[in-house]
Amino acid sequence: MASLDTPVSEIMTGKPETLAPDNLLLDVKHIFEKQNFHHHIPVTQNDELVGMVSLIDFVRVIGGAGLDDSETVYSSRKVKDIMSISPLSVEPGTSAEIVANILAKGEVHALAVCENKRLVGIISTADIIRFLLGK
Fold it and tell me: Counting beta carbons within 10 angstroms of the beta carbon of residue 70, is it exposed (0 to 12), middle (13 to 18) or buried (19 or more)?
């Protein structure tokens, strides 16, 4: 059975794909099109976490745009226009129980994992559920 004392560093996805605030929404689209993606993209500047983009943030902004890369919204908007500023984060040593309690509140569906302000991973609600189920 999974131990609730397990540090998040043993559960998280390490070295997640990131974006910079000045990246275009086209870059966001290309990351979301990949398989097995978290649906949350950390935004970093000088290796420090400055924001987070969720799939929901992205879909709200693109509205009725199609999947064609030439849609205007993908080249006219930047990550900094849609990212959540100052996202919640935890330290790598934070227990699975603490992370599960934060995510269970339903306010966010993923947390950045940072060590001295530097992004080292990401942990999502799905990651915690899989861990607790032993999968």
Answer: exposed
User: Of 119, 115, 67, which is closest to residue 94 (Cα–Cα)?
Assistant: 115
CB 109 within 8 A of CB 94: no
Residue 132 burial (10 A CB sphere; 0-12, 13-18, 19+): middle
Quick: pLDDT tens for 67-78: 899 999 999 999
The whole-angstrom separation of Cα 19 and Cα 32 is: 12
3-state SS assignment for residue 101: helix
Q: How far apart (Å, rounded) are the C-alpha atoms in residues 38 and 83?
A: 16
> What pTM was computed for the model?
0.87
* Domains in the chain, CATH or no CATH each: 8-132 (3.10.580.10)
Q: Kindly give the parts of the chain with pLDDT less than 70.
A: 1, 35-38
Give the burial class of 87: count Cβ atoms within 10 A of its Cβ; 0-12 exposed, 13-18 middle, 19 or more buried: buried
